[in-house]
Amino acid sequence: MSTVEDRPTTATTGSPRKNGTERRWIGRSVPRKEDPKLLAGRATYVGDVTLPGMLHGAVLGSPHAHARIVSIDTSAAEAIPGVKAVLTGAQAAELVNPMPAFCAEPVPQTAIAIERVRYPGEAVAIVAATDRYIAEDACAAIRVEYEVLPAVVDPEAAMAPDATRIHETLDSNVAFHRVLDFGDVEGDLARAHTVVRTRARWHRMCASPMETAGAVASWNPFDKSMTVYSNSNFHNFLPWAFAGMLGVSTNRMRMIPCAVGGSFGSKHFITKVLAIAGALTKATGKPVQYLEDRVDNIAANDNVGCDRIYDAELALAEDGEMLGLTLKIVDDYGAYFQFAHGQHGNAMAQPTGPYRIGSLRYDVSCVLTNKVQQGFFRGAGADPGNFVLERLVDKASEVMGIDRAEIRRRNFIAPEQFPFKTPSGNVYDSGDYAAVLDRALELAGIDDWRAEQERLRAEGRYLGIGLATCQERTGYNASEWWFLYDNPPLPATSTPESVKMDVDAMGGVRVEVGCPLWGNSPETVVSQVVAEEFGIDPNDVSVTYADSTTGAMSAGPGGSRLTIMLSGATRGAARTIRDKMIRIAAHAMEIDPDDVECVDGTFRAKGVPGASMSMADIGMRAHLFFHSTPEDESSGLVAVHTYDHPYSTPPSADRTDMGAFYPMVSHACHIPIVEVDAETGVVTLRAYYAVNDCGTVMNPTLVEGQIVGGIVQGIGAALMEEYRYGEDGALDTPTFREYLMPSMHEVPEIVVEHLETPSPFTEYGVKGAGEGGRLVAPTAIASAVDDALKPFGVWVDELPMTPERVVDLVAGAHEGRP
Amino acid sequence: MKPAAFAYLAPHDLDEALDQLAEHGADARVLAGGQSLVRLMNARLASPAVVVDINRVGGLDALSLVNGSGPARLRLGATVRQRTSELSPEVAAHAPLLAEAGAHVAHAPVRSRGTVVGSVAFADPSAELPTALLALDGRVVARSRSGERTIEADDFFTGPFTTSLAPGELVVAVEVPVTAAGTGTAFVEVSRRHGDLPVCGVAATVTRGDDGSVAATRIALCGAGERPVRARAAEDALTGSDGGADAVAAAAARAADGLSPIADCHGSADFRRHLARVLTGRALRTAIHRAAGEADNA
Ligand SMILES: Cc1cc2nc3c(=O)[nH]c(=O)nc-3n(C[C@H](O)[C@H](O)[C@H](O)COP(=O)(O)OP(=O)(O)OC[C@H]3O[C@@H](n4cnc5c(N)ncnc54)[C@H](O)[C@@H]3O)c2cc1C
Fold first, then answer.
1. pLDDT given at position B297
2. InterPro entries, alphabetically (chain B) (predicted)?
3. Which CATH number does A35-43+496-643 carry?
4. Ligand 1: residues whose CB is within 6 Å?
């Protein structure tokens, strides 16, 4: 392992490392190519798309959590000048099909409710009008008569056999239940010296991207084709699924990606906005734009994060060796089940964390209630898992009297144990967890903070030092969506990423990527890889985005995979083209291809400085001089390269082994410093230290952005973000006045450092870094609050730690509550 | 999030504004800084047929010391921005509580548009400035086509977002008595984030007599009821006492007496009662300290 030197804080200039090969561009903080257009307002978002005659959509949402729709009167809305279409769920169903789902259970979902609404904000009717104002006037003029039904809010109560049923097509609100044992769980519990337990609560949150989900759909009634601009991620992965929903043949569906104003996982599929725009364009014959507003997005984004109750136990031997882990999870999925239990497949990648825990019981119940459904949000199911595991480790440290760093060190998977197969089957590629921990303790200056803590306690103030050491599984394979089923409806095994690269006649390099610009940095990464492979300047590489008609298959950003996958795809294409250029150069210079090397953008005879050809020389030859190229070479310099998952194995038929599906595993240790006002419950972050290992750091500035942004969202998870529903099922957090996220005022200086253990599985040794901040910060901050309030003996097992919850914890500790 | 259609009027002088308000009565809403009204309109929680923008009306932006009959008063006109008040040397000298409370309102860009009077007229039960006005024993000057009247802060706030203002009336100014030597004031609050409306906040004024005992106390709370409310039991407990630690603790313990706080996702009623007690203690300690003329961090 090598350390990236000279980076006391979040350094923005990287130095090329010397792990094996000397690299010129990989590892440098090349300025982000995406920034200028984003900062200058020149990127085209869905909201910027204007087509001739385009109409604007709006949605009328249900005010009730659960109700039967008795009648809908749209006549007043239709009479408003400028209104071109008003559609109820039943009318829309004649134009578009139900939303595709990954679940095996019969949980049908249409973009606009038919007969029954199942969560507050669910669409009841949609409108297209000449502008959004009129569309909203029309929504206000629609009269809906409801018969209110009992709302199912509490997930545990929802599990009762006699609970009000969310879907009549199911026998129970427990849409899915499965218990899986890996290893000798009972034996480990029996031989344990100590078993620590927690009942933990992780509430639902949403991704809150700056730009909400949206689409512009344009139906051509003459050739029955559909063009859709959207901020979906799956335009080059599942375009056929969208086509099926929109009732268009797959070869007449064109999806064009727009710049995306943030997603954090929430815009993979976004079928609802496409269905709404699609139904309205079919109804009117005009292009229609529908972009959720903030209220639509919070109430009905279809992609909220996990909502779990854990009963968890960690069994330990006398010396603190972790033996087994049991997790009994009730997960509140809300009213629909579009992504099935994918979030648990995801969590299964790293339930036992960085530790050598021998056995695991995973007992999961996916419960339906009258809330907006789950989808994906940064962490994607592994986030609460890290929270619970690290809380248990802290508790074991406390109960067994072993220092919390020491108990972790004793249980870390050692560097020589990689690749390491976890009890549930996933494989970890590489790591040096003790080195990360040691560096973090050093970086934070723990001794100084302990002294400060003591000084403040004498004044009646409560400073706390947190600690968490967590995994960040990166680079998913599709099996995580379905391996919890014995008979999955779609047991897909591909998560490809493609680029199309060409070198033109003047030597210019152009790369078309299949993924969208989702807020991350595909242009920069691709340019760095091309620069590395050809020795040219990354500024000279042009990167564009492919629409769905070019066939550049791409699962896109998600599961912290994009840098891994794009560098693989780009390197593959670059190598193909470079090899062809070498052959052409060798032919021209009349030497053996093995004697040609590509250095600084020129192809030269090894050891003969004078004999060389530029990229343009070869480009022109390849494009216009067929007779001057080797006999079996076709004209042009084009390559499409699809990079498939670099290391995956299928699950076993009996599901005792889920296979390797998320094997590039980054790691981090976070040390937040908090101060807690024990009387008011206000938690203030004073400082934050993070040491991260995501393998080869492709670009330190980009990684820093991911980590810091993730930590900020983690601060939200720890202290603020939570969907709350009233007993009647009403959403009590419908706007940003109630649903709170951290602002710059709540975020301390964040100091980030990197260690690097390259992945043996990927090109250049890169691992992902997209989710780590949020996967670690919540549990680290919980640990800090515990530490601050140690004099009271509090135990944080529920997030977010709102002032009221903290005051209750302190009061409960006074009363001797456990 | 688009407002319903409305007519927009922009009068240039007070008479014109009052005529328009009289003509449209309950169908009209005054637009001052727009920092609350526009949000309500976008969410269609308010759909006034007519919006009367008073920002061009001359003379409403005066911030001045008024020496008439009775004690001197500080007067803030209807278009005095919250930011102007917060940074004003007059306010710092004569009504520091207004500046201290005002600094907790939102963020500087919002305060640069939002007006002190607008916040008072909006009567959000969680807002800082109405609470400060109440603690300062301030008053509201309202004018309509039929004349001008003065409404004591104690009588102005009648419920959540409701006041004793009649349709057709415009608040032309708020006034607070000048804070004299021997009186200390303090504002403290707990909000979920910097710049958010408080979960609970306390504005306190304490006047010490010549013998050092507490001669007068006014304590007003926000986030603790359906409108800004006085903590009268705590006021009574402190007034006449020596203002020492025990007296403050005894007063703070009574700060939630008789409160019926609202409950929302930021705090239950019980939690707000708890905060009312904790924050009253803190506000009183600081106010007493300041009443004695001591520096804050002495
Ligand atoms: C992001 C954000 C954060 C905020 N945070 C806080 C906070 O922490 N604390 C807080 O107290 N407030 C907060 N606010 C609200 C802000 O303080 C508003 O400015 C204030 O409540 C209203 O003042 P205004 O001048 O903007 O009034 P407007 O929005 O123009 O009007 C508000 C209401 O008062 C009426 N009105 C205004 N002036 C008069 C008048 N002269 N006579 C009669 N009626 C009148 C209007 O008709 C309307 O009903 C926040 C606002 C925003 C946007």
1. 63
2. CO_DH_flav_C, CO_DH_flav_C_dom_sf, Diverse_Substr_Oxidored, FAD-bd_PCMH, FAD-bd_PCMH-like_sf, FAD-bd_PCMH_sub1, FAD-bd_PCMH_sub2, Mopterin_DH_FAD-bd
3. 3.30.365.10
4. B 29-37, 78, 105-106, 110, 114-115, 117-119, 121-122, 124, 127-129, 170-171, 195-197
